[in-house]
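Quarterly update from the structural biology core.
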Amino acid sequence: MKRSPWRRARQALTLAFFILVPVLLFMLLRNQDWGEVWHALRSYRPGVLLTALGLAACSFALFSSYDLLGRRYSGHHLPARQVLPLAFVCYAFNLNLSAWVGGVALRYRLYSRLGLETATITRILGLGLVTNWLGYLLVAGSLFAAGFPALPAGLEIGATGLRLIGVGMLAVASAYLLACRFARRRHWHVRGQTITLPGWRLAALQGLMGAGNWCLMGLVVFTLLPDKAGYPTVLAILLVSSIAGVITHIPAGLGVLESVFITLLHGQYSQGTLLAALIGYRAVYFLLPLLLACVVYLLLERLAGRQRRGASVTSVEGRSG
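Predicted structure, tokenized:
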């Protein structure tokens, strides 16, 4: 089977990123004064760290609530006390270990153990993905169209190109919202799955929640940086690094996040200050939630095992009676 030109181009782009990111990161950090990084980390006040932790907690709570939208969309009746811990575990594993592990495999496993069918889980997963990327399109499109972030001289895309990309992203997001409001055809069948266009109110909630979560992520980084770059700039750079991480398929965007921030903010902060902020961001938004998610996952597995054993005992007693 011949591969399409788009697929070959995507694979070439991914390979280029895999080569470029480590090389760029090495060039940026080879003369780094790690004493400066350590000093910047030690200088964080408890109030700053607590604020960053609070923002991260709000972000995880909001992202986990995507699955409550999925419950409304798919029509299942699992209570929120079961849905939210499950979604939190999946999100934390998704961020650190890739979407295939946390977003897909783990979600199918945990939901299926609660009795949901594969088709229902797929609808939950699909709505969550659309919610996340609809929010991305709305926030990134608005910032890029407004000229954020300022790009270094010499980049081929240029400020005009970035603005056009932003306008295109807003057009895609608007098309989805308008389709949810006005489309007459609401159902499609693709490879045995039924795709249903959500209603206008649910789509509006998707946009608000998705955009809100990306804004909270940007606030975490902004809180850990000294007051030089504005919040729109920091948020826009985070959005650029996020899509670069998706293109490279590197778990947690390791190295990609650092390379993008150092490249686009090197004129406003020293490398040590930037690295300290990004290390703090990874600790607060990636590692601590992952540790907590591991504990919650073990509890969910234990609870599911108890429920399964209880159901087996009830079934045996029913047959013997």
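The longest strand covers residues 187-190.
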